[in-house]
Amino acid sequence: MGPKKESPFKYLVILPQIGISVFVPIALMFFVAKGLEYFFHTGPVVFIICIVLGILTGLKILYDLPMKMNKESMAYNKRRLEEYENEENKNKGNGDEKNEND
User: Fold this and answer.
1) Does 61 score more than 90 pLDDT?
2) How would you label 8-41 residue by residue, b for 16+ Cβ within 10 Å and e otherwise?
3) Could you state, in order of their start, the residue ranges of all structural domains in the chain?
4) Is the pTM of this model over 0.85?
5) CA torsion sign, 47 to 53 to 54 to 59?
């Protein structure tokens, strides 16, 4: 039997996290823009710049989070495969010694 695979349910948990991580910077920049417009009467240009910055930040998070998960997953799978191969090598080594002693 091969090494254990990691659970696919862990990726279902990340979906709400991605949604919140994309929404929060956009909403935060919206309120910052509204505040700047209220206090400094900046007009729609600053509002548009803030919204674009919020969207770009959300997209960066949308890219970085799955890439980080993929990197961690690859490292986990590599460790599990190495453990499995080491265990197989030990079992083969023990089987050869038993045959030599008989």
Assistant:
1) yes
2) eeeeeeeeeeeeebbeebbeebeebbeebbeeee
3) 11-101
4) no
5) positive
